[in-house]
Specification:
21% strand; Arc Repressor Mutant, subunit A; five-stranded parallel β-sheet; 12 strands; Rossmann fold; binds calcium ion; 8 helices
């Protein structure tokens, strides 16, 4: 998932970012409420992790403004105090869940998974399949014709994204924005390099070919070859 992390304390921000990235998520970290609103307007995120006490614009206001602007991205609120008032005001502002500081990384990751499950109509953790290609998101496992294919985290994320959108043409930008954070996806051919690696591992030795290049546009995962 691509996650926007809004937390002004550098130590907590770095700790959360690292934990999420180790779990395969792409994380953009910002430190003020103003930046949170700018970044949420500029990119599409799967989840926003939002601290309540922030400089300039506080987390509750950020959340209210997002919802008022029809931004439906799930929000996990971070709060320093566990009082009923804090919880109620967070949920009133449009947050989907909240977590009280200090928290263990394990608990944060569990909340992130639960939110991902709750907000997606298609269950995030159900098995994905196309022809003889199978991908199990919860076990992080890919097989083709019954053979296990080892994929590093980014290649796995790209394949999962392609599978969730099987039959649709995905541009390089769509793929990049889904898998990398803002800092790392600016190299233009990085998606092509990853697709080449994926093909070598899960397409070259098998039939039918599943990854199709759509000239000058991007890629599509499907059983049928392209019409164009
Ligand atoms: Ca804070």
């Amino acid at each position: 998932m691509r996650i926007l992390l809004v937390e002004d304390e550098p130590k907590i921000s770095a700790y959360v970012k690292r934990g999420l990235e180790e779990s395969g998520h792409a994380v953009d970290a910002v430190y003020t409420g103003r930046d949170a609103l700018d970044w949420a307007a500029a990119a599409v995120y799967d989840l926003i992790i939002l601290d309540i006490l922030l400089p300039q614009v506080d987390g509750l206001t950020v959340c209210r403004e997002l919802r008022a602007g029809r931004n439906r991205t799930p929000v996990l609120m971070l709060t320093a105090r566990d009082t009923v008032d804090d919880r109620v005001s967070g949920l009133d502002a449009g947050a989907d869940d909240y977590l009280v500081k200090p928290f263990a990384m394990k608990e944060l990751l569990a909340r992130v998974r639960a939110l991902a499950r709750r907000v997606n109509e298609a269950p995030k953790f159900a098995m994905l399949a196309l022809a003889d290609l199978m991908l199990d998101p919860s076990a992080h496992r890919v097989t083709r014709a019954g053979k296990v294919i080892q994929l590093p985290a980014k290649e796995f994320s790209i394949l999962e994204y392609l599978l969730r959108n099987a039959g649709r043409v995905l541009t390089r930008t769509m793929i990049a924005e889904h898998v990398w954070n803002y800092d790392s996806y600016n190299q233009s051919n990085v998606v092509d390099v990853y697709i080449r690696n994926l093909r070598r591992k899960m397409d070259d030795l098998f039939e039918p070919k599943l990854i199709h290049t759509i000239c000058n546009v991007g890629y599509r995962l499907s059983v049928e070859a392209d019409e164009n």
